[in-house]
Design brief:
Length: 770
C-alpha cells in the first residue's frame, strides 16, 4: 500500500529513476533538485541575496483565526505596525461558540473587525467559514505562498505552498520582515491507481501518517504530490489528504495542478489565480513515498494520535487487544480519570460500538464529504439511542449548496444535526461526548482532551479519526463500527450528483475586505479581556534556571503545554491564560514557576538585596566547589548580571498546534529556556525563539537525572549566544544537595536575527531596539 525509500529519486516524465539510472540518461541529480515544484516556488519567494542555505521568504497572504489574531496584532502594534502589507484574513471559527464567560469572544471579534478596517485587512464574521476553507476559496492560487497562524495551514492541492506557524512569524511578515528557514529537503509522494469506492481522503491521509510520523520520514521537509493517481481525485479529495499532512510534521506541501484545479479556482471567481504546475524537466527528490491508492482501505486512527492508524477491518478483528492498549495509555496519561474509559466494553453484539459521530472542519466538512454522507444515510436512521451525528459544513457557501441540492435535508431526515462552520470539534470546544464515550470524527486530531473532556476533573473520553464515508456508514448502523467499503457502491443512491455551485453573494454581503484600503483613523475596540504583553527582560550575562517540570512522555503536544478548549477565549489575555500552563500535564507547574519568578522580580527591584543574594548562593552552593569562577560570576557580590528563571524538560515537545501560547505562557511565567532531546516541530521551536527562550538540546539521558526543583546554571550564556557558539557549558545542581554535574547543551541552527531576538528577550523588544 505504502512504500518508503530514503534514497534520492529522480522523476523523468512518468519514470522514477535512481541517481545511477538518471546519470546513465545524462541527468545531473544536483541540477535536477532545482526542478521540483517546491524548489521553484521557494526560490520565487526567497528575498535572500546570499547563498548560505537559509531562505528568507516573503509570503503572498496571511491567515489567522480568533484565538490567534488578537495576540498577533497586539504584538505587531507594539512593534510599529502601520498597515497590513498583504492580504490578511481574520476568520472567526474557533471562538464563535466557546465562551469562558461574558462578552470575551465578541469583544475579540469587534477587535478583529476594527483592526481589519484600521490596517486594511479581511474580516470573515463568525459562522461564515473555517479558516482553511475560506483560504482555499478566496486566497489560494497556483505558485503562491500563504502563512497562517494555525498548524493546518495547507493549500498544496491548489498549487499553494502554505506553512502553519506561531503568531510571531506572522508579525514579521506584517512588519516587512522575512520567514527564515533552512532550505528544506523535498519528499516525492507518488500516487498510483484510484481509490476503491468507499475509501475517502481521510483514509489515504491516515495511512500516510501511520507510515511516516513515528520514524520522522518527512519531518520539516516538503511533501510534493505527483503521479498518475492524482488524475482520478477531485480537488476536494486532494484537499482532504493535503490538510492532514500537518500530522506528519512536514514543513509544507505542494501538488501538481491540472484542469480540475483550474475549474475550482474559476468557480470561485479567481480564474486568474490558475497556472499549470508541472515538472518541466527531470526533478530530483530526497526521499520517496509511493502509494497504491487502490490498496488503501478504510482506516481508523485510535486514541491518542492520528498516527495510531489501522485498517478498520483489522482493528475490528483485534479490537480487544488494541482497545486494551489505548486503555493502558490512558491510565499512563490520566491516572484515576482513566477508570471511566472502559473502551473494551464497546465490544458487544457482534461488533465495536461507538457513541458519537462528527464530520467537521477543514478536513471533514467539505461539500463532497457531506453529500456522500447524505447519500449513505438517505432513507436510513441514526436511531434514537445514545449515538448522535453532527455535521459541520466548512463554509456558509457550502452549507447553502447542501441545502439547495437536498443533501442537508437527507442528513436531517436521518437524524443528523447540521451545524455552522466551526472548528470546535477539532480542538475540544464542540460536541464534547459523555464520560467514557468513544467518538468517531472526520476532523484533524485526536490528541488527549481534543474531544473536550477534562481528566483533571475526573472526566475522560476518547476520539478515533475516520473518514466521513465510514462515519456515515457507522451512523446508518446505529453506531456499530462499519467501513464504508461494506456498502454496495453500485446502488444509484451512492452515486449522487457532486456538482457544486458556489454562491459568491454570501461573502460579498458579509465579509469585510479592506485590503489596500486602510482607515488609520479607525479606533480599535479593546474589550476588558484584551491586554498588552507584559514587559520582558533581555537575556542576562548568566542564567540560573530552576526546573519547574520534567516530562518524560515520548511526545508532548502543545495541547499539553497549554490546553485548548476552555482556555481559548483567554488567548487575548497573556496573564490570565498563563494560569493554565501545563494544567493537564503538570498542575503544580504554575505555582513552581511563579515562585521562581518572584525571585527574579526581587532581583530586578534590587540586585544587591542581601536576603535574595543569600538565597541564590544557597541554591548555587554545589557550584562553588565545582567551578568557583562561575560561582563568583553568578552570585559573588550581586545579581546584576544573573537572571533567575524557570525551565522545563521534555523529551520531544511541541507536536500539534502552531499556537504561540505554548511558549509565550512559559515566558510570561518567567521561563528562560526549554530543555529537550529534540523538538517535535519547527514551529514550536520558532515560538520559543520569538519569545526570547533558549531552545536547548540536551542528551535524552538527562530525563533520568533531572528532577523538579533542581537548578541549572549557564555561566556566560549571553556571550555564548552572541558569539554563535553551538555547544554551551552548564551545570546541574541537584535539589537534594548532591554534587554539581557538568552538562553540555546544543544551540544550533539559529539565524543572526534569531540570536538577536533571544539576546533582546523577545520579538517585541527586537523590533523596538533595532
Amino acid at each position: 500500500m505504502i512504500q518508503l525509500d530514503d534514497k534520492a529519486v529522480i522523476v523523468d516524465g512518468d519514470a522514477l529513476l535512481s541517481v545511477a539510472e538518471a546519470a546513465a540518461r545524462g541527468i545531473d541529480a544536483k541540477q535536477a533538485r532545482n526542478n521540483t515544484l517546491a524548489h521553484r516556488i521557494l526560490a520565487a519567494h526567497d528575498t535572500s541575496a546570499t547563498q548560505d542555505g537559509t531562505l528568507r521568504l516573503r509570503f503572498d497572504a496571511l491567515a489567522s483565526h480568533d484565538i490567534t489574531y488578537v495576540g498577533i496584532i497586539q504584538t505587531a502594534r507594539a512593534s510599529g505596525l502601520e498597515r497590513f502589507p498583504m492580504p490578511y484574513a481574520l476568520t472567526n471559527c474557533h471562538n464563535s461558540l466557546c465562551a469562558v464567560g461574558g462578552t470575551i469572544n465578541e469583544d475579540d471579534h469587534l477587535f478583529g473587525l476594527t483592526a481589519a478596517q484600521k490596517y486594511g485587512g479581511i474580516f470573515v464574521p463568525p459562522h461564515m467559514a473555517v479558516i482553511h476553507q475560506y483560504a482555499r476559496e478566496m486566497l489560494a492560487g497556483c505558485g503562491k505562498m500563504i502563512l497562517g497562524s494555525d498548524s493546518h495551514t495547507r493549500y498544496g492541492a491548489l498549487g499553494t505552498m502554505a506553512v502553519g506557524e506561531g503568531g510571531p512569524e506572522l508579525v514579521k511578515q506584517l512588519l516587512g520582515k522575512t520567514y527564515d528557514v533552512a532550505a528544506p529537503e523535498v519528499v516525492l509522494v507518488w500516487l498510483e491507481n484510484t481509490p476503491q469506492p468507499g475509501v475517502g481522503p481521510q483514509d489515504v491521509a491516515l495511512a500516510i501518517i501511520g507510515a511516516v510520523f513515528k520514524n520522522g520520514f518527512v519531518k520539516n521537509r516538503v511533501m510534493e504530490f505527483a503521479g498518475p493517481g492524482i488524475d482520478g481525485l477531485s480537488v476536494e479529495y486532494r484537499c482532504g489528504i493535503d490538510v492532514m499532512t500537518t500530522e506528519t510534521t512536514c514543513l509544507s506541501s505542494i501538488w501538481r495542478t491540472d484542469a480540475r484545479v483550474r475549474d475550482y479556482l474559476a468557480l470561485h471567481g479567481r480564474a486568474g489565480d490558475y497556472t499549470e504546475l508541472k515538472l518541466e524537466a527531470p526533478a530530483c527528490y530526497d526521499r520517496l513515498i509511493r502509494i497504491d491508492l487502490a490498496a488503501v482501505q478504510p482506516m481508523i486512527a485510535l486514541p491518542f494520535h492520528p498516527s495510531n492508524a489501522w485498517p478498520i477491518a483489522e482493528f475490528i478483528s483485534h479490537a480487544d487487544e488494541l482497545l486494551g492498549a489505548v486503555e493502558e495509555e490512558a491510565r499512563k496519561q490520566f491516572g484515576k480519570a482513566a477508570e471511566g474509559l472502559q473502551l473494551r466494553a464497546k465490544i458487544h453484539d457482534g461488533g465495536v460500538w461507538t457513541d458519537q459521530g462528527v464530520i467537521a472542519g477543514c478536513a471533514g466538512g467539505s461539500f463532497e464529504n457531506c453529500v456522500l454522507a447524505s447519500a449513505i444515510l438517505d432513507g436510513r436512521s441514526t436511531g434514537n439511542g445514545a449515538f448522535s451525528l453532527s455535521v459541520y459544513p466548512a463554509s456558509e457557501p457550502q452549507s447553502l449548496a447542501l441545502v439547495r441540492n437536498g443533501a442537508a435535508a437527507k442528513l436531517m431526515e436521518a437524524g443528523a444535526i447540521i451545524k455552522n462552520a466551526f472548528c470546535g470539534p477539532c480542538f475540544g470546544a464542540g460536541d464534547t461526548p459523555a464520560n467514557g464515550a468513544l467518538s468517531i470524527r472526520h476532523s484533524t486530531r485526536n490528541f488527549p482532551n481534543r474531544e473536550g473532556s477534562k481528566p483533571g476533573n475526573g472526566q475522560a473520553s476518547a476520539v478515533a479519526l475516520m473518514d466521513a464515508r465510514s462515519i456515515a456508514a457507522t451512523a446508518a448502523n446505529g453506531g456499530k463500527l462499519t467501513p464504508a467499503t461494506d456498502l454496495d457502491w453500485t446502488e444509484a443512491r451512492l452515486q449522487p450528483d457532486l456538482t457544486y455551485n458556489f454562491d459568491a453573494n454570501l461573502y460579498a454581503r458579509r465579509v469585510y475586505n479592506g485590503y489596500n484600503q486602510p482607515k488609520p483613523e479607525t479606533e480599535l475596540k479593546l474589550g476588558p479581556n484584551i491586554t498588552d504583553w507584559p514587559a520582558m527582560s533581555p537575556l542576562t550575562e548568566h542564567l540560573l534556571l530552576k526546573v519547574a517540570s520534567v516530562i518524560t512522555d515520548p511526545v508532548t503536544t502543545t495541547d499539553e503545554l497549554i490546553p485548548s478548549g476552555e482556555t481559548s477565549s483567554l488567548r487575548s489575555n497573556p496573564l490570565r491564560l498563563s494560569e493554565f500552563t501545563l494544567s493537564r500535564k503538570d498542575p503544580a507547574y504554575v505555582g513552581r514557576a511563579k515562585a521562581v519568578q518572584a525571585l527574579e522580580k526581587a532581583r530586578l527591584a534590587d540586585a544587591a538585596d542581601a536576603s535574595l543574594l543569600e538565597t541564590v548562593r544557597g541554591m548555587c552552593a554545589a557550584l562553588r566547589t565545582a567551578d568557583a569562577a562561575a560561582y563568583d560570576a553568578l552570585c559573588g557580590t550581586n545579581l546584576a548580571e544573573t537572571g533567575i528563571g524557570s525551565t522545563i524538560f521534555a523529551l520531544k515537545p511541541g507536536d500539534g498546534s502552531a499556537r504561540e501560547q505554548a511558549a509565550s505562557c512559559q515566558k510570561v511565567l518567567g521561563g528562560w529556556a526549554n530543555l529537550a532531546a529534540e523538538y517535535a516541530t519547527k514551529r514550536y521551536r520558532s515560538n520559543l525563539i520569538n519569545w526570547g527562550m533558549l531552545p536547548l538540546i540536551a542528551d535524552a539521558a538527562l530525563a533520568q537525572q533531572l528532577h523538579v526543583d533542581d537548578a541549572i546554571v549557564l555561566p556566560g550564556i549571553r556571550k555564548a549566544v552572541a558569539e554563535k557558539r553551538e555547544q554551551l557549558r552548564g551545570w546541574l545542581l541537584p535539589a537534594d544537595g548532591g554534587p554539581a554535574r557538568e552538562l553540555t547543551f546544543t544551540l544550533s541552527g539559529l539565524t543572526d536575527d534569531e540570536r538577536q531576538i533571544i539576546l533582546d528577550g523577545c520579538l517585541i523588544n527586537f523590533y523596538n531596539r533595532h
